[in-house]
Each structure stands twice: as C-alpha cells, then as structure tokens.
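Hi W., the zinc ion complex you wanted:
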Amino acid sequence: MLMCHVKGCSTDNFPLRIEDAEMEQVEVEFNEDFCRRLINKIDWPAFVQTAFALGLDQLPAALPDDLDEEFLQRIHKLALETKLKAGRMVCNGCKHVYLITDGIPNMLLQETEV
Ligand SMILES: [Zn+2]
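Structure:
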C-alpha cells in the first residue's frame, strides 16, 4: 500500500487502487508479537479497503479491541503471506498508473510528473 507521490497530487492519493492483480501466496512463520505491532502501524481503513478490493478478505471496518490469535492469523496471511506479483496500482486522485512487475512496484515518475 503505497501513496501516490506525483507532485501536486494530494487528495485521494491513498491507498492506490490495485487493478489486474496477480497474487502469490508465500509461507511466512507466524509471529504473534510482530503481528500486533504491525497492526498498530498500518492504516487500518486503507488495509480493509485494499483487502476487500482484491477479494481477499472482508475485515471489520473498525479494528476490534480484542485481537485474538485467529484474527492475528488473518492479518498475518494478508499482510505477510500474500504478495502482489504483477498488476497495476492506480492513483484515484491523479490517475497515475504504477506498474508492478515481479512483485516490485515501479514508483519512478516521468520527468514531467515530479
Ligand atoms: Zn496521484
């Protein structure tokens, strides 16, 4: 989940909309403490929106007070085990398209955009 950084683009620029996503599942060892810290750092509404848009999971709009292990496992799977292999990230604000190839989003901008 990255923010658009086209110069002058400051509204509706996060999260980037993901299109034609090609997902890949990888296995990452579950670490409960790490997962709890991660949840406190992510932008929850943006995370929920992205997970839903990708058809991965329907998470509660508000972060539950009680984060049980089952819930943390869900976050672990979404945030750490699901990789975006290919696709496009589109800014809702300025419509800039960032291509993702081999799991790496190309965040470089053309000279006219910086
Ligand atoms: Zn933008």
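Strands lie at 17-25, 82-90, 97-101, 104-105.

W.
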